[in-house]
From TrEMBL:
Lineage summary: Bacteria, Pseudomonadati, Bacteroidota, Flavobacteriia, Flavobacteriales
Function: The purine nucleoside phosphorylases catalyze the phosphorolytic breakdown of the N-glycosidic bond in the beta-(deoxy)ribonucleoside molecules, with the formation of the corresponding free purine bases and pentose-1-phosphate.
CDD domains the UniProt entry points to: PNP-EcPNPII_like
Name of the protein in question: Purine nucleoside phosphorylase
Assembly, per entry: Homotrimer.
Domain Nucleoside phosphorylase residue range list: 22-268
């Protein structure tokens, strides 16, 4: 994998991806941050050596480089998921490449359903901790110790300094920012009533199908990371209504300006 990471990195450097400071991963329906960036280079995933290709129709599948709030950023416009048939190593490969490009911080976003019924559609949750319900680890492979310490401490997976900055940004911009625990599940099917009840019992505030693998690898690489969930649907098992993916995307897009404001504010102060 070390050789592959070097080839991917060298290719991107040759295409103008020079020493980014901040990496950003954009979740479902959360691609408009790109419009705020002074773009200097962009490459489709399928052109980058050893990169997976996004197979979900509403994930664009581009790596973008440019300036935002005076910082050089590299942005994943579209991410990868286990439910697409990829491995946990595939899903997290871009984080390893971004580290080799030079990122010093990582910001992650996702669309999620609320388990905590105090969290409403269109609001944002700052992830304080997570539950890995994916059935595996992106660090569970032969030779992982050559890329970082095998037994990674996860007592504080989300960077407290960056989280505090996001909280301060929310107050400054009058944005409701909840704090809670994110559960990552395999998907792609949404949850049953019984599953929503189970998730509540074990301590989840929101549920989605991403983010945790990337956060684990960020910790493996010692990259400070923060993540937010945009609440796109509400998982009330006693009043569960059918949800379709287009409704989820529409709600993510509606809430996205607040997420962009938070990310811009934090990047400016990093």
């Amino acid at each position: 994998m070390i050789k592959q990471i070097k080839e991917s990195t060298d290719f991107l450097i040759s295409r103008g991806f020079a020493a980014p400071e901040v990496g950003i991963i954009l979740g479902t329906g959360l691609g408009k941050l790109i419009e705020e960036i002074e773009i200097e280079a962009e490459v489709s995933y399928n052109h980058i050596p050893y990169f997976p290709t996004a197979t979900v129709e509403f994930h664009k599948g581009k790596l973008i480089y440019g300036s935002l709030e005076g910082k050089k950023v590299v942005v994943m416009q579209g991410r990868f998921h286990l439910y697409e048939g990829y491995t946990l190593q595939d899903v997290t490969y871009p984080v390893r490449v971004m580290k080799h490009l030079g990122i010093q911080k990582l910001l992650v976003s996702n669309a999620a359903g609320s388990i905590n019924l105090n969290f409403k559609k269109g609001e944002i949750m700052l992830i304080e901790d997570h539950l890995n319900l994916l059935g595996g680890s992106p660090l569970a492979f032969y030779g992982v110790e050559h890329l970082g310490e095998r037994f990674v401490d996860m007592s504080q997976p989300y960077d407290p300094v960056m989280n505090k900055a996001l909280e301060e940004a929310s107050k400054k911009n009058n944005i409701t920012l909840h704090k809670g625990v994110y559960a990552s599940v395999l998907g792609p099917q949404l949850e049953t009533k019984a599953e929503y009840r189970y998730l509540k019992i074990i301590g989840a505030d929101a549920v989605g199908m991403s983010t945790v693998p990337e956060v684990i690898v960020a910790n493996h690489l010692k990259i400070p990371v923060s993540a937010v969930s945009v609440i796109t649907d509400e998982g009330d098992p006693d009043n569960l209504e059918p949800v379709n993916i287009q409704d989820i995307i529409a709600m993510a897009e509606k809430a996205e300006p607040n997420m962009i404001s938070l990310f811009r504010e934090v990047i400016k102060d990093l």
